[in-house]
User: What shape does this take?
Amino acid sequence: MMPEVELVNVSKSFGRVKAIDRLSLRVEDGEYFTLIGPTGHGKTTTLKLIAGLVKPDDGDVYIDGKKVTDLPPEDRGVGFVFETFSLFPHYNVWRNTIYGPQVRDEDPESSSRVAEDLLEMVLLGGRREARPDELSGGMKQRVALARTLATGSKLLLLDEPFGSLDAKIRMALRNEVRMMVEHLGLTAIHVTNDTEEAMTISDRMGVLRRGHLIQVDRPEELYKQPNSLFAANFLGESNFFEGEVKKISEDSLLVEIEGGKVMNMSTVGRWKRGDRIVIAVRSENVKILEKNTEGMNTMSGTVERSQFIHGFLRYEIQSELGKNVTTWTFARRGKSHMIGSRVTMSFDPKTIFAFPYPEEGLEEAISFE
Amino acid sequence: MPDINVRDVTKRYGRITAIDQLNLNIRDGEYFTLLGPSGCGKTTLLRSIAGLVVPDEGEVYIGGRPVTELPPEDRGIGFVFQHFEIFPFMTVLENVAYGPQMRGWDIDYTEKRVYEALEVANLLERADTYPRDLGAPGLQRCGIARALATGARLLLFDEPMGSMDPKDKRQFRYELRKIVKDQGLTAVHVTHDQEEAMVISDRIAVMRRGRIMQVGTPLELYYEPNNIFVANFVGEIDFLDGFVVDNSAEGCVIEVRGGFLISTADSTKKRGDRVVIGIRRENLRVQLGRKEGEGRIPGKVKRSVFVGPYVRHYIDLENEYSIAVKEPSGRVKTISSGQEVTVSLPLRDTLVFDYPENLEDEMALE
Amino acid sequence: MERFFGISPISGLPLELEVENGMGEDSATVREESRIVSIERFLSTRKFRILSDFLAVTFFLIVVAGPTLYVFFTILDWSTVYTWVFADPFTGDTRWMVMRRALFLSFQIAAITTIIDVIIGLPMALILARYQFRFKKFVDTLVDLPMAVPTSALGFSLFLFWGTKGGFAWFLGMESGLLSRGPLMVVLAHVAFTYPYIVRSLKAIIINIDETYEDAARTLGASSVTVFRSITYPLMIGGLLSGATLAFTRSLGETGATIILSGVYSTAPVVIVSWRRMLQIPPTAFLSAILVVIAVILTSIVRIVMRMQGGALGKVWPDIERRLSRPRMRITRNIFVVLTFALIVLIPSVFIVNYMLVRFSGSPYTGRVESGVFYQVFVAPDRKWEALLEALVTSLRVAVLATAVNIIAGLPMAFLMVRRKWGRIKSLLDLMIDVPLSVPTAALGFSFFLFWGAQGLDMLHPGFWMVVVVHIAFTYPYVVRTLMAVIEGLDPGIEEAASTLGAPPLTVFRTVTLPLIGPGILAAAIMAFTRSLGETGATIVVMGLARTIPVLIVDWVESLALPAAAFACVILMGISYCLLLTLRYVLGWE
Assistant: This one.
């Protein structure tokens, strides 16, 4: 029995700050759902609303089709994992793990067995007597997971669970958590501001900005078809150009961008001639050509900076338009462009997104503030 | 000239040895990073360079001058903190002017230095702001300007991006390196984030348990790690273990579990040696279907994860290893969960290590 | 040349500058600043640091700790003490019997007070720490109110409320007072005046417990009662025990209210005061020594229990605990909290204001002007207002002096206690700092009387200066403890930042530390000032002819000039309450 979660028109304000504004969301049975967005845009509040740790001003929360808006957290049957681990400092690992079953007065024998199995599963079977302050960060979060799962809860809420861990531990632990959720058949709702983490573990994810859920989709679709400039900018690195629609044909759109350059893109959309738009190209979709060629969808420039990021080369290229374009390519040993060299970039018509020019201006539309 | 020499430095806290007989040489004008997991001693090392920690043994030299006994205020360094430590009751300008005033510089020179520092840190417009009105990147810019205004040629960064959002972090690291390089400074930077270290540094020292595991350029660490820990800590990698069955001047052939033979370019290992092979995830090739041959191992795709610029395939190999492969996401997508595939290991980019006494401990990240 | 007002970037203090070109500061200011820095660099050397440490510790030992413990030296003359206490030629061991009875009564009262305090204070602390509601700040201020009422005023107010027909009895329609003077009334007074202390300390402890522990427990299925029992309570048990011990010692040592309310039953501090009045030095010294010993023991207990944490969770009764966690139970609890607070603490404490207003111009029953406040204070031939004015001036002078000396001497001490790594010596100092806090002030005052007076160094005689010295001693722990907490809360990184920017330690202190701990220093000062203003026991013992207001109140109550005493109380309360409000403002309502 896996729970589904539904939020209907939920709002929550703290003082004068609107943390969540009429948010609706449905997370299915057995799904690994992730909420992403910049810090302070309502992710954690949403999670706490589901757990019952925060009461909504307006709207309703359903778990398994049952309205739980007025239910206290202890009766909702949710498991919550905190960024700061929140292991009870006065209990050892074992007592922390068994806490849930104990406060529900469950049969001690069977709950002991469950707790034992869980501690084995998180590879801490041998540290039952340890106090929380004797454990490393990764271990603490493993105990916290075991403690949460020991209640038999099928809905796992994870609030930046890897936020206070080292980068490498983070990568290792997120795979473990994902496997565990799959293995035990849980529903998980995960909050993070790390887009790579989100894309790696989620079945679906939702982008939160300023208390609004602006897009919900599978990672790949979200990445490939962002519905807003913000989403395009938040997930992955993109290059933005302002422009105007020049010509519309059956299967392509010609856009004149800054500097009189004309870009051809293969998604037509609902544009009219003369519309002011912004086009976006992901950095990995900007290709550096072997030969210097002129033509549509190309741009020349000078390599300003090159960086090696675990297996990728990231170039910042001062383009002929005067502004920097970033590109990502897989690194091959011995193949790289020197700083200062002239290159030609090409933009694949199939990978260009177009958005209407935002009223509030481009800067504001992609801002994380 | 601010080159740094750390000689046989040891620092203990009670029964814990934070750094152990450590030697290190940082060159003038270098952007140097200390990288390692929490508790590896990198911060203690940085603080003993700054004088905020006095080592139990050993000497620290800055610019050839022994400074071990010198208090921090007399070392001519700029220290930038993880939690910024901007004086909350002063404006940005007043914060930046603090150092020059401590030195008693005359008003014209102070003003010049302060405005130069503000300009370098891109804070001129916010000079009259109070710290509470700045975001994390703004606060850290102020921290840098404040350190620069003292005329310090050596900047010490203690996890300077540790309290920023991932997005801000990515932006900020470019700014940081640019400032250091444009001003011709020497920088020592502490972080646990290998990605940050790779992008920002000229050279990196990877530390573990109070010792230095390897010092090298980012590419050296990535392509020629000295040991399993460094290989594992920098970049994404999977390991297989086996025995050398053949060796020649060009390299050796290693047999792994399941009888699969893998050729490598490593010629230092002898026949019969027990070894560990490390393969970076983006260096592996995946083909559909089952293919035989040297350097190839068939398996089944467990899960394929789209991560923006690349796709990560988790594959269960036939010989019971689990590995992952990174592929650019632009390629025509044909591989998905459950499919039979063959993974080929590259000849040149396969790393070979002696089998350590305790493999699990060697790979432990904490 | 133009004048320019600004804030100094170095000191953070307002500066008035004369600027020649309208840009930046005058270079004279900069030169001045750099001269100061170079002096500070010189003064930051090891030699001066050791000197300042030495002075701070010496001050503490000679001015505070030494005289407090001096009382032991006088009972070394055991044969005299023995004769006085156990074998008086006329009365035999009567004094010993009195002493035993008084000590026993003091302990009983303190124990009952502490138990009631915890029962009614804990839920209040919980509500203030964990719930958000309207008027929370207001309730918070009200809880602190009895702290502003000097204990002698509080005692008098309580007497009027419980003991006269115009008080609670009037509300019940009774013809005479509900209670008469005696232990019960003393307990009520002690509960009222220790209540703010216990609520405050428990509240601070609960706020310090990371709320996510409680969140975690609730999501694990624990109802709020279970959460309290299994998480909050075990984590706060050390704080609870040490808070309770502190309340116990404060009750044990209270003099002002007790004198007024105890009637024929004497507690130990009251016995000290009365024997001292009769100049019976040896038995007073003996009783004081006993109280000091008890204080040292209790202080040590506080140290030990402070870090305690509870153990395993025993049996859980989910149904019962869940039922107890229901909203209805919460409402019941809230009503209990509000009622007990209002009836036991708040109204009795401020009842005196009502009393004074009703009687301002005359008695409400007989209409006689002579029974009115106005007549008694301003018109009557004994010119009470002159005495009042004189006492007020004395009180303020004592409080100002004691506070100023303590801030100067306490700051280096607080720094030393937080920053130096002296091991054992420091733990001993740490323990000793708290001793004057738990020694009954009457005993403390008496020990000082012996130390400085004719029996000891013979340097001071009962009078104004001796009062000042005693007030310095018993407010010292408040100042040092408050400052220590502030310094401990300071982010060490920010001082490190200043030192890497080139500031020598003393400059770091002046330019960075001081502005940051400024509010803390002010808080410590106000705390010391209010305590000094309200003190009775210690003052009575060493005052000679100088009279402070609390003593005046006791005198007037004893001579039955009740309306005049009420007037003095209200004035004292007014001053204290204003100070307290300032304190809360300084600390940002927290």
